Amino acid sequence: MRRILLVDNSVLQRVQRSAPVASALVELLEHGDLGGCLPQILEEGYSARSASDHEALIDASSRARIFLAPDARSPPSRSTSSADCSTRASAARSG
To answer: pTM value?
Structure first.
């Protein structure tokens, strides 16, 4: 079974602008599949610079990744944001 890898939005935003980042991501994806979760997709959409950029980002995200649903069993924490909790819960649920 291949691993599902969550990559931070800052990495995904730099892939097209930085050859070293793109190369590192390609190497990483040799070991697993790119996953995504709702907080991450919302963050990407928020960081879009225009309506067309937003549409392209969301379209690429939906085609390129395995979507990880939130895990309701994971309790929220006061020391982290809800987005962090959802991301961790999604990653933990997927193994």
So the answer is: 0.56
